Every structure is written in C-alpha cells, then in structure tokens.
What does this fold into?
Amino acid sequence: MISINFRDSRPIYEQVKDSLRRLIVSGALPADEKLPSVRELAAQLVINPNTIQRAYRELEHEGYIVSVPGKGSFAMAQSGANTERIRALLAQFDDAADELMYLGVPAGELRARIAEKEAKGNEA
Amino acid sequence: MISINFRDSRPIYEQVKDSLRRLIVSGALPADEKLPSVRELAAQLVINPNTIQRAYRELEHEGYIVSVPGKGSFAMAQSGANTERIRALLAQFDDAADELMYLGVPAGELRARIAEKEAKGNEA
DNA sequence: CAACTGTATTAACCGTCTTAGTACAGTTAG
DNA sequence: CTAACTGTACTAAGACGGTTAATACAGTTG
It folds into this structure.
C-alpha cells in the first residue's frame, strides 16, 4: 500500500506524503477513511514514528487529511480549491510536457494519456 | 537567464540543472551554443564554482550538454532517445495530471495546454 | 607566455533528515 | 475506572549531503 525507498535521495517523510496523497487522489482512500496510526505505520515501514508524524502534519496542513488527537487521522474531502498547489502542479505538468515533446514524444500521446485518465475517472 | 532561489529547499546544483535544461528544451539554447564557463556562471550567480561544475557534470551525463577541457561547455543535440529520462518524465506528467484532475481541473484544460505547446513548437 | 577553459581533490562548516527516548492529553473498549 | 489506544510535543544525538574555500593540473587560444 505504502512503500518507501531508502536509496532514494528524497526524504522518507516526502515519500510517505506522496504515497498517501496518491492514494487519496486515486480514490483508494475515500474521504473519512481512517489512516494507519502514526505508530502503526511507523512499525509497518520500520521507521521512526517522528518521521510519520511529520508526514501527517504536513498533509494536514495541505488539506489532504485531518488528524484528531485520541481518534486518529482521516482522509479529507477536498474543500476549497487549493490554488497554490494547483499552480505548482500546473508548472510541473508544463515542464514535463515541454521536455517530453522536446525528447520526441508526440503531443498526441500526451493528450491520449489525459483522455485515458478522464475515462477512468468517469467509470469510477 | 538563469536564476536560483536560496530559500528553495532544492539543492542549488539541481536548480541550475533545471534552468539550463529548460533553456535547451525551449530552444533558447540551440545545439552547439556555448554555455557560460564554470567560473563565469559561478561569479554571475554568486555561488561556488564547484556547484556549477557539478551541475554541468550531471547535465553532460544526461546528454544535454558536452564539456571540452580548454574549450568550454556546449548545448548538445539530443541524439538517442533517453528512455530512462522519458520514463521518469511520464511518471511526473501522470502524477501531476492525476492530482490536477482530482483537484477539479478539467481534462479539457490539460489537453488544451498540450495543444498550445504543439502549436508553439510548430511555429518555431 | 598569459589568460582562459574544464577537471580533480581535500578539508571544513552547516543544515536537514532521522532516530531514540520520553512525556502528556484526548478517546475508547472492557 | 482502567488499560490501551490515539495524536502531539520536545530534546538530544548521529549521519548525511550540499556548499564553500583553496589549490592544483592539463588543454586551448590569442
């Protein structure tokens, strides 16, 4: 479900954040779904609870989850559009598309990928 | 031309790499164009020459530039398709698209962005 | 020869990531 | 109520990577 790569230069807490965000975005973690507890996920990944805590704290700050002392952490329905995050994602999207086309990947293939996601999103 | 952000958590040499790669990809730096020397760019950005050297070394390893002792560093025409880089870029592209659509950005807008790039690429 | 180019190497500093250990308050099942 | 869970906070220590500084050497060029 969630995996981390110790060889990766990226911090573990970032990898955990991205994994969880991807699970939420993909629908694998619907709103109000309970996440593993800080200690449980730490034990599962064999890393320190502090590292998980940091990932959860930042995900909550980004509006993807909500943590309640004593109860747990839960996936959260996206409320207000996160304009700042959208701006960053669009920049990432454009950069990747620009370089891919420079490297010879046809624009049609990129558009087809979008269309495929659109279909998958509607079937769910 | 090339700018770095000291507040950014990303390493300076990565920022330099991305700036140069973007200049090459966008066509601002055509093949065989001479890049600033290691020391010159370091002085311009007020950072250590070693940091520039590292950026150049890795860009050469990625096939974006070529460095010749005594002469300088030059933008390089993309020869063989860099399959590894393309794979990573497609993953980045997909992740951004997935989350953008999750956040409510319509697929049509993403496709329109691709089409726009396609048009710009053809006019050049 | 002089001034440039890339390249290599060593040492030192500093910030961040991660771990370990402990502690406290809220929640919940028995 | 108690026990076991939950999130949260804090300090200390170690490890690692990024960056700088200071040289040094070889190839190129006017």
